[in-house]
Design goal:
By secondary structure, the chain is an all-alpha fold. Helices cover 52% and strands 0% of the residues. The protein has helices at residues 10-24, 40-50, 55-63, 71-74.
């Protein structure tokens, strides 16, 4: 079966899904979520950005973190 992926801004996603359901029918549309595991350095940098840690400081911290370990191990 053909499919297409939609990646839209969170505030507009419901509008797009409603359009697709109206166009193709409720029984023809489904939503699938994708989950992934982030590397510890990337997770740290994302968390640092969210809490407002300056970019250069977050980079300095992540630079001293060994690769391929958990955040628990890094701490």
């Amino acid at each position: 079966m053909p499919d297409f992926d939609i990646d839209f801004e969170d505030t507009q996603r419901d509008r797009v899904i409603e359009y697709v359901r109206n166009k193709y029918g409720e029984e023809k549309v489904s939503a699938i979520g994708t989950y992934m595991q982030m590397a510890s350095k990337a997770a740290f940098k994302d968390a640092a950005r969210v809490i407002g840690l300056p970019f250069d400081r977050a980079n300095a911290f992540s630079a001293i973190m060994p690769d391929k370990i958990s955040l628990d191990e890094a701490l």
